[in-house]
């Protein structure tokens, strides 16, 4: 039970990170390899707000999420929209975006190393015990999970109860058909990319409350987000959440029962198994 609960608590932040990439890749068709750097940048901002200005990380989300939204919209407009305009098909856009965001990864990582150095950072926030089923867990982990759930619920309501959310889902399924029913596909894609960045930043801010981080760890979280997105089905919010839960529990299981150093190996193994036996994702349909 202890392993299960720990894995579930971890999966909350994993889900937010993956939902960010789901918006960017599933809707805008941008495979953002700099997604993990957005997460790390949010960790540093949350760290600075708390240690420098004494702003609670949860309240800091009100600053971090809109800032990440605006910055990611700017990145899309300046660096990625030209790629979208010249791409003849989705395949070419995906290849071009991988190359472009690969460079973005190193640019952001370099800026953070210059600004914060290469050492690890952490801060003490809600470092108290919280009892669940007779076992003690960090209150910061529990609060981070609860906040992640609230953000997911808000995203779900937005996607399935608003016109803008419906437009996002329509573009994810078929941008050409969406264009025929008067949906501004270009603007919707930009909005999706910015929203994805904001979700990832929220995940990073919450992760920073209980996780030690440094400027170079973004690529690991990009890989995990990619695995979750593919496992859940590209563009499927339900699948991303379920896949995040599976990954969180699997990593905790391996770290607790075998060796913490094998968690990445377990993640890659899970990824390979999904590609071999369920490449369309948990809720996806096999191509006919």
Describe this structure in words.
75% of the residues lie in helices and 3% in strands. The chain is an all-alpha fold. The protein has one domain. The chain has a two-stranded antiparallel sheet with strand order 1-2. Helix 10 crosses helix 11. The mean pLDDT is 86. This is Branched-chain amino acid ABC transporter permease.
Describe what is shown at a glance.
The chain has helices spanning 2-27, 35-53, 57-86, 90-116, 139-161, 163-173, 175-180, 185-207, 218-232, 237-257, 263-277, and strands at residues 129-132, 135-138. Helices cover 75% and strands 3% of the residues. Strands 1-2 form a two-stranded antiparallel sheet.
**Gyration radius, to the nearest Å?**
18 Å
The amount of helix comes to over 70%
Q: What's the number of extended β-strand segments?
A: 2
From the N-terminal CA to the C-terminal CA, the straight-line distance is: 41 Å
Question: Roughly what is the average pLDDT, rounded to an integer?
Answer: 86
Proportion of residues in extended strands: under 5%
Strand-and-helix sequence, N→C?
Answer: HHHHEEHHHHHHH
From the helix content, strand content and strand pairing, which structural class follows? mainly alpha
* Uncertain runs: none
Question: Number of domains in the coordinates?
Answer: 1
Shape: globular
Strand order of the largest sheet: 1-2
Major beta sheet, specifics?
2 strands, antiparallel
């Amino acid at each position: 039970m202890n392993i299960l609960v720990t894995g579930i608590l971890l999966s909350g932040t994993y889900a937010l990170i993956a939902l960010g990439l789901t918006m960017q890749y599933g809707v805008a068709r941008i495979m953002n390899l700099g997604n993990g750097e957005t997460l790390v940048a949010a960790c540093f901002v949350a760290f600075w707000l708390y240690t420098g200005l004494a702003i609670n990380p949860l309240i800091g989300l009100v600053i971090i999420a809109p800032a990440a939204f605006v910055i990611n919209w700017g990145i899309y407009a300046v660096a990625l929209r030209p790629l979208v305009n010249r791409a003849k098909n989705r395949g070419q856009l995906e290849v071009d975006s991988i190359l472009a965001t690969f460079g973005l990864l190193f640019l952001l990582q370099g800026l953070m190393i210059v600004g914060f150095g290469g050492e690890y950072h952490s801060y003490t926030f809600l470092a108290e015990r919280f009892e669940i089923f007779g076992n003690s867990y960090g209150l910061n982990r529990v609060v981070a999970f609860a906040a992640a759930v609230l953000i997911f619920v808000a995203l779900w309501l937005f996607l399935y109860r608003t016109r803008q959310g419906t437009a996002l889902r329509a573009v994810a399924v078929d941008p050409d058909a969406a264009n025929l029913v008067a949906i501004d596909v270009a603007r919707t894609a930009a909005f999706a990319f910015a929203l994805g960045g904001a979700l990832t930043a929220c995940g990073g801010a919450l992760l920073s409350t209980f996780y030690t981080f440094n400027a170079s760890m973004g690529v690991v979280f990009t890989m995990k987000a990619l695995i979750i997105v593919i496992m859940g089905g590209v563009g499927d919010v339900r699948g991303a959440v379920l896949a995040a839960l599976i990954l969180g529990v699997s990593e905790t299981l391996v770290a607790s029962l075998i060796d913490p150093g094998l968690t990445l190996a377990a993640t890659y193994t899970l990824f390979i198994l999904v590609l071999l036996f369920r490449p369309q994702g948990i809720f996806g349909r096999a191509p006919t």
